[in-house]
Amino acid sequence: MNLIKWLRSGINIKRWIAAGVLGIACISFGLSYLVGNYYWDKTRALLSFFLIIAGCIFIVFAVKYIVNIVINEISASKGFRISLDSERLSNLLYEKRILINGPKIVAIGGGTGLSTMLRGFKTFSSNITAIVTVSDDGGGSGILRQELGMLPPGDIRNCVLALADTEPIMEKLLQYRFNEGALKGQSFGNLFLAAMDGISDSFEEAVKKMSDVLAVTGKVLPVTLENVKLCAELDDGHIVCGETNIGNHSEGHPGRIKRVYLDPATVEPLKEALVAIKEADVVIIGPGSLYTSIIPNLLALGESNAIKNSKAIKIYVSNIMTQPGETEGYSVSDHIEAVESQTYKGIFDYCIANNTDIPENLKESYSKENAEMVMLNAEDVQKLGVKIIEDDFVSIQNNLVRHNSSKLSIAIIDLVADKVLRKDKKRSIDYYYVRDKLKRMTIKKK
Prior knowledge:
Elements: H1 3-7, H2 14-36, H3 42-75, H4 86-100, E1 105-109, H5 111-118, E2 128-132, H6 139-148, H7 154-163, H8 168-174, H9 188-198, H10 203-213, E3 219-222, E4 229-234, E5 239-241, H11 243-247, H12 249-252, E6 257-263, H13 271-279, E7 282-285, H14 290-298, H15 303-309, E8 313-317, H16 332-342, E9 350-354, H17 360-367, H18 378-383, E10 387-391, E11 394-397, E12 400-403, H19 405-421, H20 428-445
Parallel strand pairs: 1-2, 1-7, 2-3, 7-8, 8-9, 9-10
Antiparallel strand pairs: 4-5, 4-6, 11-12
């Protein structure tokens, strides 16, 4: 290194590098004095210990101030638009280490319900796996599926964004829908994922690459990589195929849905999804469209058995509103029985349901669409062997009834902390961390 350049004034880091080198030298001389003497001499021993202690002090201060200088430099407005400080960085690193060991959460579903719920979990864990349905054949996803032969990206895009650590402008960009031209109605995020699919060996790899770009907390997995069609059988035996047609079947052929099935029936689930279910602390099914988002995920070969054999807590999150064409007149217990009829009895340990009314104007608005609040029949739910957790989980967004993601995640994590973490002595630190987090969030809401 050029001596003149070394002597130039800069960011005051050279003096601390020199202090670090001096510290190493002091420790080296101290150890040589201590080890090199074949007879005990108090003066030499004291000098050795003094040099070693002094060297350690020099190194500690050198490292501390070098780190502070670097952080201050990248925080300053010198071409970097980052705001960091040593205390915040320390807290951030601590949080990340804790979150890595957080509860293992598997959420199964699709549509708006799943992505809404996922947002609340990022605070408690980075061990999140979202298993998403791929039977969508309508809207922008349906067009890309038909024209490019890819799996529908819409639900997966929403889940990726829900778990992403992105700036608001980036999320707004990926959710943007074109208003004119050949791309009218198409989401930029769908096109982004389609482009990733084009440069990847598989759709699974494309989702992982998109997740890496957006710094996703956890994983988002399609339930299968096979091109599947969803079909429904009505009570009178009539068959309706296609997710969009199933949702709108009441317009052409009214009737209650008896069951849904996949075509082909021998659909293999993603192995990574089965592993995640096996290792999970909690498996959450719902919220979402019962027959077009939730049950289809459970029909892939081995999926229901994996849930049955998992030691995880199994939770069903009930919808707040019924869905026209699918669950008109359904109560909470009707939803659970519909899932059990196509999987197995006792699939759920707990059910989380809303017990609060919504404003009258929203009731009237939903009524025009043949939708109403899902009736909470707690006694019937308990007769099915399912424990019920009820509370006010309503969030009104743009005159639409949604789940409050924060309240929902708190209720679920509170249950996991009590039933899983508290009983495992090896995870006591995780338990106390989660409890402290829950306490602070509860106080903040009050």
